[in-house]
Design goal:
Four Helix Bundle (Hemerythrin (Met), subunit A), 198 residues, mainly alpha, 3 domains
Length: 198
Amino acid sequence: MTFELFIFYLFSAVTLFSAVAVVTVRNPIYSALFLILAFFSSAATWVLLEAEFLGVVLVLVYVGAVMVLFLFVIMMLDIQIDTIREGFIRYLPVGILVAVAVAAEMILVVNSEVFNVDIPAPTPLSVNNTEALGEVLYTEYVFPFQIAAVILVVAIISAIVLTLRRRKGVKKQDPSKQVRTRREDRIRMVKMKAEKRQ
């Protein structure tokens, strides 16, 4: 067994362990932290398979953005862990039955003839996979890429508009009025007579 194969099995085992822990751990904070560990180990597996771009994107997008949002929402909500523990034993047989059914389906699909295809020998590329992906993305698929970017921008703007509520009685700043202010609006000169000592 080579060192690279040992590292691959190590990261695969960590991924499987953390994925099982995400489902079985009852504390939602620990579950989210195990999900972060699963993302990191999956990214390391991608890097071992010479897909550096996918590994970096997995860390930046999921660990850097999505999981921070998950942790923020979990910590903001007041989750009653005791009520979650009460229903765990009651739904355990159904959960085991569904898990066995899904595992059986996956085994049947993977062992079918569709997946028994000879893997072609890898051809060495003159450039790395990130450069090759960027070349294809910005030449052949530039218009679908731009359309996807516009759709994402519209989704962000619509989410902001849907959550924006104007409530009465709330003090807020108006930057346009602040820019148009003059000195006379802010300072008032008052003339007072000098006090005399007695």
